[in-house]
Design goal:
The chain has 23 helices and eleven strands. By secondary structure, the protein is α/β, with parallel strands linked by helices. The protein folds into three domains: about 90 residues, no CATH class; about 90 residues, no CATH class; about 270 residues, TIM Barrel. The radius of gyration is 26 Å and the shape is globular. The chain starts with a helix and ends in a 17-residue tail after the last helix. The relative contact order is 0.12.
Length: about 525
């Protein structure tokens, strides 16, 4: 009997041993690996995936048009408070008072008319959009509809945007605005300065007309007032301070490239001079639809303008919209050179959109060049879909990642798009099956390739080695050595990166538990 029992035991072990071994607990994984496993386990569970991406610390949003970032509901309330008028046929807000015209209504009336309220939201955004115009035309047409309201609400917009950023676990924003409130253009108009293709002579005329003093003074006044209003609304500096107070903000000077060349050059010159005089303004960036006549016709000229100014002041940063184009939107040749010229001629450090990269001449060579020169690309998935109709496997995001081009995820115009940073990251993770290590690298890129002042916390592109001052310190401990503390104090970029590492460590520690086959975030049962 004893021999028989031993035999049966061995037989059971042989039959079931493999399944038994699967039930044995695996060695405990490190937090990053455990988090990666958990992400893989919830990819087909939308609600859990949303929660994961929402809680993810996201670093910075480097491509964010402030006016386009505001939801229509806020514009409606501000228009009502300011006694604006609404043109009902076009859903455009007018600063002038309403007359007896039946096509005009006081903005306040929108709040008392449910149908009109919904109509205006749809007109000012891509919500429920279905034509008859193209998504491209509807998207860009929204800005004229709410532009007059936005002009007098910089501080309110900053408060809304920083609060939303904090809710999305962002710590830094680079906002595209017109910081001088059009002062550069006024200099051109007031002095009747025509465009001179001799850029040195053109620059001299603008300098003689006082463009630097006027643009810098207007910027300081505008930003001082806007930030004071934001701080007041968020109770910054008080015990009741709201989370948005902790979001660092810098500004990109948006150059309106659809305007005549004398104004475009004046804005570019003003941007360079403002960036040197006011550290809150970190670069210039040409905006307006890239496929429009003037931006296409004058593209080479615009690149030559930037190159000229860059040679005089190479320390001023450059992030340039380029490649927000697609086949059929412009003639084939128009797709072949914008990204390359922005990098090679105009010295762009980052590219906004870059959707048409595979239509460029020698696209693989360009991708390798971007990777070697570490020119980052700002990916805006929702607006690329809504404006260009580019989504899914048509989008070049996987190609950029494949060739090692630094990638950041950004929001573009989240109010118009009815999106936010969480939704943009969710779309990237869901549609392109991004692994957690790739996701973490993208988050880190958002501060590494920002235009924050100071040195980086990192000494390598793989984020494996920190600056020697902080090499032995642990960001998650909440403490730093005196040498590291002094380094962080002197370098804002490194300081925000340090806090990001602490936030990522806390996120990973909270998200996942054991290194077995089952992963349980706090309060959730088995996800297997």
């Amino acid at each position: 009997m004893r021999v028989r029992a031993v035999f049966l035991s061995l037989l059971l072990l042989f039959i079931c041993g493999d399944s038994w071994s699967k039930e044995k607990p695996q060695p405990k994984a490190d937090p990053e690996t455990a988090t990666a496993r958990y992400l893989d386990s919830i990819r087909d569970q939308p609600s859990l995936l949303l929660d994961f991406v929402h809680e993810l610390p996201k670093g910075g949003d480097l491509h964010n048009h402030l006016v386009g970032a505001i939801y229509a509901e806020d514009f409606i309330h501000w228009a009502a408070d300011d006694n604006f008028c609404l043109s009902r046929p076009t859903s455009t807000f007018l600063a002038t008072g309403c007359t007896a015209d039946a096509n005009l209504s006081p903005a306040k009336q929108i709040l008392n008319d449910a149908n009109l309220y919904q109509q205006v939201i749809n007109a000012l955004s891509m919500r429920t959009f279905s034509g008859p115009e193209s998504g491209h035309d509807h998207f860009f047409a929204t800005f004229d509809k709410f532009g007059a309201v936005a002009h007098s609400h910089l501080g309110d917009m900053l408060a809304v945007m920083t609060q939303q950023a904090a809710a999305d676990h962002l710590s830094y924003l680079e906002l595209l605005i017109s910081p001088d409130n059009g002062a550069a253009g006024h200099v051109v108009a007031d002095n009747n300065i025509a465009f001179d293709d001799n850029l040195k002579a053109m620059r001299d005329k603008l300098l003689a007309a006082g463009i630097v003093e006027k643009a810098v003074a207007a910027t300081k006044k505008n930003l001082d007032e806007g930030e004071a209003r934001k701080n007041q609304l968020l109770h910054c500096g008080t015990p009741q301070a709201l989370p948005g107070c902790n979001v660092a903000v810098r500004y990109q000077y948006q150059v309106l490239r659809g305007l005549p060349p004398n104004i475009v050059f004046a804005q570019m010159l003003a941007a360079f001079e403002i960036a040197k005089a006011d550290p809150r303004v970190v670069d210039l960036n040409p905006v307006m639809p890239e496929d429009a006549y003037v931006p296409m016709h004058d593209f080479d000229l615009h690149m030559r303008m930037i190159a000229f100014l860059h040679e005089l002041d190479p320390q001023v940063h450059l992030s340039l919209h380029a490649g927000e184009l697609w086949t059929g939107l412009v003639p084939p040749h128009g797709l072949t050179y914008h990204i390359r010229e922005s990098i090679e001629m105009a010295h762009a450090q980052r590219i906004g959109h870059g959707v048409d990269v595979m239509f460029e001449d020698d696209p693989v060579g360009l991708l390798k060049e971007m990777a070697n020169r570490k020119v980052a690309v700002e990916i805006n998935l929702s607006s690329n879909d809504q404006i260009l109709g580019v989504r899914g496997n048509q989008h070049p995001l996987p190609i950029y990642l494949l060739y090692g081009v630094p990638v950041v995820i950004s929001t573009d115009d989240q109010g118009v798009a009815r999106s936010d940073a969480t939704q943009e990251y969710l779309r990237a993770v869901r549609d392109y099956h991004l692994s957690y290590p790739v996701l973490k690298r993208i988050v880190r890129n958002s501060l590494e390739f920002s235009f924050l002042q100071g040195e980086s916390l990192w000494t390598d592109s793989g984020y494996a080695h920190r600056n020697s001052a902080c090499a032995s310190d642990d960001p998650s401990s909440g403490e730093s050595s005196s040498a590291c503390g002094e380094f962080l104090k002197q370098n804002e970029r490194a300081r925000l990166q340090w806090h990001l590492e602490a936030d990522l460590a806390a996120f990973e520690g909270k998200t996942c538990c054991t290194g077995g086959a089952t992963y349980r975030p706090e309060g959730v049962g088995s996800m297997r």
